[in-house]
Amino acid sequence: MTITVPFKQVDVFTSKHFKGNPVAVVNFLDVEEDSIAHATLQSIANWTNLSETTFLFKATDPSCDYKLRIFTPMCELPFAGHPTVGSCQAYLEFSGRGAVRNLYQQCGVGTVELIIDGKTIFFKGPKAKAADISSTEIRNYEGCLSAGFSQKPMLLDVGPKWVVGLMQDAKSCYDLEPDFSKLKALTTKYGATGLIVAGKYSGEDKYEMRAFAPGEGVAEDPVCGSGSLALAMYLQELNSYGASYEFEISQGGRVHRDGKVSANIEHRDGEVEYFIGGEAITLVNGEISV
Amino acid sequence: MTITVPFKQVDVFTSKHFKGNPVAVVNFLDVEEDSIAHATLQSIANWTNLSETTFLFKATDPSCDYKLRIFTPMCELPFAGHPTVGSCQAYLEFSGRGAVRNLYQQCGVGTVELIIDGKTIFFKGPKAKAADISSTEIRNYEGCLSAGFSQKPMLLDVGPKWVVGLMQDAKSCYDLEPDFSKLKALTTKYGATGLIVAGKYSGEDKYEMRAFAPGEGVAEDPVCGSGSLALAMYLQELNSYGASYEFEISQGGRVHRDGKVSANIEHRDGEVEYFIGGEAITLVNGEISV
Hints:
Two copies of one chain form a homodimer.
Chain A: E1 4-12, E2 21-27, H1 38-48, E3 53-57, E4 66-71, E5 76-77, H2 81-95, E6 102-107, E7 110-117, E8 120-124, E9 130-132, H3 135-142, E10 151-157, E11 161-166, H4 170-175, H5 180-190, E12 194-200, E13 206-213, E14 218-221, H6 225-239, E15 245-251, E16 259-268, E17 271-289
Parallel strand pairs in A: 2-3, 4-6, 11-12, 13-15
Antiparallel strand pairs in A: 1-2, 1-17, 3-4, 4-5, 6-7, 7-8, 8-17, 9-10, 10-11, 12-13, 13-14, 15-16, 16-17
């Protein structure tokens, strides 16, 4: 039986139309979750052809505002960054809860805290640790790139498993030419989602960042939330900040986008917490027939 | 300045939701074409991430019903099959002209005639000729495939340049495993859009078909209109039909779709004309902010 429900396609991590990372959001808040087959959700996500399509359901955990299920064209994910920010914006519009400051998203990794600060939506990063990778693995990654790392890369498992490394500066990151077929073979071999490279803008608390995941069918992701989280954790590891540090990440220029991410590393009572945020604009607004 | 215009995402060449080939259609019928920059159209098509996004404008040729501009994520095309069928369905809904039988689409290749036959929309194929390719080229293509051709492939330039070849039967076509990186290198070398393979279902006027275009960033196209046209022309060349011949094409099973195309080869006063058609269902209906 066909049902028609509200639908939005939201541009995430940008304030400029069509210059961020899109996510399709289907509103099933008024539909029983067990009346919709997993295969139906997967078909929709395969059809939109976006890196992620999400489905809003009523939360089953009473401490959460809604439940989010996140699908790539091929599978369901426990968590993802830009879909979380875009779906939160869609939820705010669908529910009419404009003035709220905090929301709690129920998803595969558990409860994710969201902070709405003006036009910017932050998610609190799930706990993760940086792990060293071997010098052979580092050399192999460098063999896929037109320039070497300026700091030793590490592996950050934030849900997706990103290998993160710093380049000399912002320009060398922007100019980098990866060999995508070699990189695809390598990330598959090492079981990594992909490679994040970043370079600092001189005199600014700002990094240029690029995310390559050819093994996942995404040669270069335009603007990557989980990758931004991995970068923040990597920088904390490298620089051992003793106090809170906020910085900006610019992404997507090489793939015709203009993404902007805010990353806050917060030190609270001896704990380090990570918040990743950005703006989200609904560009397509309507209904979908399921 | 932001304007908001009607938007649809239409599923083409299927009667089952999310099982055809999607096209995003933006309705600029009430907007002056020269007020919208080419770069804006390209940004939208890059963002939707679909193989094609189309834009309906008022026709400038008074013999046409509308003008269609067709974009891939990377460039503008003079013509494409499934976007033509899907955009015609969207036009019928936008304009409320439900009972019409013929429409004329103004696009890069000139005027394309459309026939609306119940739920099925046919386009008349632009003129094209089959050309032989060398035995070396054929051997090279076979080197990318897990099985050989049963009939010598030819090149069909129908806008996109498809190399088309028959396999033993429908099953051998469905089961075929291409080496996408070798095929990408080869189609790029020979200047072809991609490779079409097809195999006949025994005892039926029906072919299984697959379309590979890794050089265009589409490893396997789910359901391909221009490829179906190329197949019809190739079969006419191989079989020298002396009278009209109608057949069905099944596509997309290997990429989670269930596409169905009707191909009519019509002999009229010594001329051969080709009509490619299928159903189209609007699944997303709303507005887009440009």
